[in-house]
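Team,

Forwarding the record for the chain on the shared tracking sheet. I've put the sequence and predicted structure together so nobody has to dig through attachments.
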Amino acid sequence: MSITIRAPRLKIVEQIAIVLFFAIVIPMTISGFIINNINQQSVRAQLKVTAELIANMVSDEVDVFETTASNELKQIVMTLDYFPSVPAKKAYLNNIRKHSEIYKELLVVDSVEEFNKIYDAAIDNQETAMLTPLKNGKYLVAIFDIQVLKDQLFTPLEDDKRQIYVLTYDKKLLTSHNYNDKIFKQTLAQLPQKMVDNEAQVFGKVKNQPFVYLKKDNPNIIIVVNTPRDMTKMTIEYGRTKIILSVLIASLTVLFIVGLYTSYLYINIRQLFKAIIAISKGNYRRRIRLLTNVFTPYEIIFLSFEFNRMVKQINKSYSKLKKTNKELKELNEFRSNMIDTVSHELRTPLTSILGYTSRLLRQDIEIDKETQQKSLKVIKKQSERLKRMIEDLLVIPDIEDSRINIIMDSISVPPVIEDAILLIKNASNKTIVNQVSGALPSIYADRDRFEQVIINLIENAVKYADEDSDIIISAGEENGKVFIEIKNKYPLISREKLKTLFDKFTRIDDKTTRTTRGTGLGLFIVKGLVEAMGGEVRLYSTEEYGFTVKVFFDKVEQE
C-alpha cells in the first residue's frame, strides 16, 4: 500500500514572501556585492591615479624650485665676475645671504668632491645644497633650509592625507609630508631595487593601498607617495557603506510597497473568504466590504461587486421564500383560527337561532305573545351578529387588494355608537360608558363600514378589559377632525407590541396566555376600513388605561 504525502498549501502572504525572497532579496544582495566590488576596484584605480598625479605634481614643483634657484645662482655668478677681489666677492655673498630668506649659506669651493662633502653634511642637518660652476674653475655652493623646499613642494597638498617623501639616490630623506617613522621604514623596505627613471610607478604589496615612486635623474631624487591605510579604509568603506545603504533602502522601499500592496490584497481576500463562509452558514445578508485604494486590483473589485450582487439576489429570493413560508404559516394559523371560529363563534349564534326557532315551531305548547317577541328579537340579534362575523371575514380580501366599496356620506356619530352597543355580545356584562355628546359634528364616512369599525372596537375592548372594569367611549374634535376614543383597563402594553397589533392574526395575548377566542383580525379590519374612508387610527397604552384606540374622521363643515 502506497502512502501519498501532500505538500502543505501555502497562503498568499507566504507565497508572496517566497517570491520576494527569490525575486528581490537575492538579486539585490548579488547586485550589492557586484556593485561593491566594482566600486572597490574603481576606488583602487582612483587612488592609484591620484597617487601618480601627486608624485608628478611634486616632481613638477621640484623642477620649478630647481629651475628658480638655478637661475638665481647664475645671476649671482655673473655678478661675482664684476668684483675684482676675493674679499669683495665674499662681502657680496654675505650681503645676499643676509637679505634672502632662501639661502642659509653661500660659499665658493674648489672642487666637486668638496661640494659632495658639504651636501652630505647638509642632508644630515636637514638642509640641501646646489652647485653652480664659476668661470675660474671653482664652484658656487648654495645651502638651503629644507623647510624652504618643503613649503615650496607641499603647500598645495596641505590638506592631503597621503605621506610624501623626497629622497636622495642613496635613499636619504630630504623632506616629507605627513611623516611617520614606522611607515617610512616600511615604505623604504618595499622600494624596488631597480627603478624606472622619470616615470611614476606603483609598488607595494597591498592592492588597496597603492605606493608610487618617481625617480628623477635631474635632480637626482626619488619621490615616494604613500596612501595610508586609514585613508584607503575610509574611502573604500565609505563607498561600501553608501552602496549597502542604497541597496538596503531600495530593498526596504520595494518590500514596503509590495508589503503594503500585499496587506491590502490580503485584507480584501480575507473579506471574500469571510463572506463565503457566512453565505455557507446561511447568512445571506453578508456583503464584501473592500478596503479600496490605488492598490486594490480591478479583478478583486469586480469579483466583490458580482459577489455582492449574487448575494443580494440570493437574499432577495431567500426573503421571498421566508415571506412565503411565513404567509403559509399564517394561512395555516388562519385556517386553524377560521375552523375554530366557525366551530365556535359561528356555532353559538346558529345554536341560539335554531333553539329559538324550534321553540317557536313547537305545536305541543302554547307560546304567548311576549315570549314570541322575545324569541324573535334573540333570533334577529344572533342573525345580525352572524352577519357581522361573515362580513368581517369577507372584507379581508378587499382590504388586502385595496378594493373596498365605500359610499361616503354625512353621518351623525352618536346614533351609530348607540346601535353598535346594542348589537355587540357582552356576555361578561362589563359596563360600557358612552360619553359621546349629541352636539358632536357629523363626519364623512360610510355608515355601514363605520358601524362595523365601532362594533369591532367595542367588542375588542369588552373581550380584553379587566374584570369589573368599565369600557369608556368618548368623542371630540382635534386639529380640525372628529375623533372617537374607546379605552379599557388592561396591563401596560409595550410600544413594540402596539406596533404589531394592526397586523393580521396578531393578538394582545399570546398563545401561552390566551383566554379569549378570536382570529386576531379585528384591528387589521378596523385599520383597513378607517383608512379606506380617509381616516386614521392610533393605539395608546398608559398606566391608567392599558389599551386605548382613537380613530379620526373628517368632519362635516356647517353651512
